Amino acid sequence: MKKILLKTEQLSRSFSNGGSMQHVLKNIDLQLYQGDFTVIMGASGAGKSTLLYALSGMDKPSLGKITFADRVISDLDPDGLAVFRRSHCGFVFQQIYLIDGMSVMDNILAAGLLVSKDKKALAARARELFAAVDIPKETQKKFPTQISGGEAQRVGIVRALINRPEVLFADEPTGALNSKTGLDVLDTLTGFNEGGQSVVMVTHDLRSARRGNRILYLKDGVILGECDLGRYRHGDKARHEKLNGFLAEMGW
């Protein structure tokens, strides 16, 4: 039986909009499991990113409870959430947000030193991750403005994983990349998931969504349905057809 890693109970998120309340997430009950590659899909404005931010502790729910790794994080104050995120969550965004004035390696070490003061161990971990994402030593010495978008996103994945997070959260990680570099990033995420890394990804891209084993479809702030695709296998036509059929049922 899969271990529950993250659970929500009656999760709701509302925002004030011109004097009225906009209810973006509505009483969501959800369980996410260790080792899964969970994909959140839905039309623009469905609440996908809002759900991701709530699950990861980047945003607090208006109502409801979030339990992450047996700890209730919805009760934490902003400082407590920041400390929790550093040790337990990794983040990959569409925009990469590397620090231009630091080398690629120093960007990684800066993130690691927020949690650990063992710089030697962090450097060894970084070199291991760089090797896994095919970033050579010469590139590690460069500054972010000197590398390609695909390289920068893979560096972003290394930064997200440097502190060994329980979950890697990804918000449209291929959205700003061309087809080839986007595929490289997807292969990287898939490889880490095959090694046991839990991944939760928001996407509107079918190619990206096929990498997940569990697809959640969000509509008007509620989970309308979900689809079990099983583990990713390259060239699996049945997987492609199953996802397309599910999305058609959801009104995609």
Any overview of this molecule?
This protein is globular. The chain has a six-stranded mixed sheet, with helices on both faces. The model has no long low-confidence stretch (mean pLDDT 93). It has one domain (35-58, 78-250): 3-Layer(aba) Sandwich (Rossmann fold). A hairpin with a 2-residue loop joins strand 9 (214-219) and strand 10 (222-228). It is of the alpha/beta class and 252 residues long. The protein is built from nine helices and ten strands. The chain has helices at residues 48-55, 78-88, 104-112, 119-132, 137-140, 149-161, 179-194, 206-209, 237-250, and strands spanning 4-17, 20-33, 37-41, 63-68, 71-72, 89-93, 167-171, 198-202, 214-219, 222-228.
Produce the secondary structure layout:
Elements: E1 4-17, E2 20-33, E3 37-41, H1 48-55, E4 63-68, E5 71-72, H2 78-88, E6 89-93, H3 104-112, H4 119-132, H5 137-140, H6 149-161, E7 167-171, H7 179-194, E8 198-202, H8 206-209, E9 214-219, E10 222-228, H9 237-250
Based on the model shown, name its key terms:
alpha/beta, Rossmann fold, 9 helices, four-stranded antiparallel sheet, six-stranded mixed sheet, 27% strand, 252 residues
